[in-house]
Amino acid sequence: MSLRPWVVVESPDSRGLRRVTVGGETVGSAWSPAALRKILKRLGYPEDMDLDDPASVSWRGGDSRTWPDRAWRRRSTMSLMMAGLLASMVFNAVIGWPDASGALTFAQRLTGVLFVLSGVVLGIAAIAALDYWGRRQFRASGAVTLLGAIIVLATDSLLLLLWFEEREYTRYLLVYLPALCWSVWAMCLLVRQKSWKGVPQPKKFAAGVVATALLTAVSLAYSTMYQPAAAPMHFILKAEFGKAWEDKKLPYVHVPLTLYMKNTGGIPVYIINDIYTVRGRVAVYSRGKGDLMPEWRESVERYGAREGEAELYVDQLEYTTISSGSFYEIGNSLDVGQEYALNRVFQIPRNVGYDTVSIDLQIAYMRKDRGKIDVQEFRSAHRSWNKHDRAYHCEPAVCGEQLIYRGRVRHNNNLINVTRKPRFVTAVWSPGDQFISSISSVPFNFYGLGDYSEERRELERYGAARARADAEISVAEILRSAGL
Length: 484
What we know:
alpha+beta; rod-shaped; 18 strands; 5-stranded antiparallel sheet; Immunoglobulin-like
């Protein structure tokens, strides 16, 4: 029998774990006497072996009663650490996946991919936390857990900063605000324990963390600020009258009309509202008095003429709507380089009293690189005169007759969606003059009450704007082209 003990139990480490060696070789680690007996039994030692026999077991840094491990505390810390990492893993994946799979621009997709990858890292960090508060079989488990805590601290701090911009309550606030507090606790605990000590090359590890953070910051800045502002919007919008022809059976002249648009900019758009209106103008002609202003002022005040028109020899301008309609299906997109044309025919009597006929074409659009519309919901028209649709009903005596379209709009940067209340795009259409489009967090108000500053801010945020084209022709030219 050798004078050297076969079994050596080392001093407890900072967690209370004691390393066990036999013949100079490490055979395991034990938290308690029961765990030590399991190791010895596996090696062929008897179950009733006397642990206090110095001829069999050598104790260093204490005896057989020195087991400082507080299992409940260690397991509670490990469980809380893993719970925070796993919850943040799911949350980052929820944030990143919509952008990674469906964002329009490369920068936005890259941002989504980075969030999804950060979720993967958090999942690995949760497994590392299990090892770090366990037997520490992997040297880098503490550093990986620390990396996970840094990611949670960075992402949730960013979300909180974005939330402070509007300070709107969302259910996601109940996720990232507690997660931020958790990350502060985790960072303090891991830094106090110097969890990075097991990393073979800590400087390279730190450099990798910094590089990843910088890449994420640059990607976010590019996708949210520079890229949307740099891509220009351009449209070709035309409205033209064609050659008229006489109706041989009825006392009318048919006038063809061509409406055309093309997206010549760099970004696809949603058409959220459009209207074309054909109007006939009646005027009283005079020789003029040498001063344009009195005639224009009287025409505006007494006859409701357009404020933007003034003619010296024309007075008492009055306009009548002849035809009005929708040009493009509401909610449809218009991609880069895509064009669309519509041909229509309207009728005027041969002896019509108009002196000119004008066409006004307007479209309202929203950039697709800024947001995504729930098209199926948005295309459902609500009639304002329908008493059974209480959310959109308005008495015709007050509102006239209108079609209201409303649908959810989501920002293409999902970070915005999780820090804001839902936004909705609303379009109001009726023949002749009603052409309204808005984006807001509150329902559309028929009576003109609401926060217009918020509406303007949201229209700018989602890149919503209008384009217009018009044309005018004399009735004399129409009749001449018809051979009259």
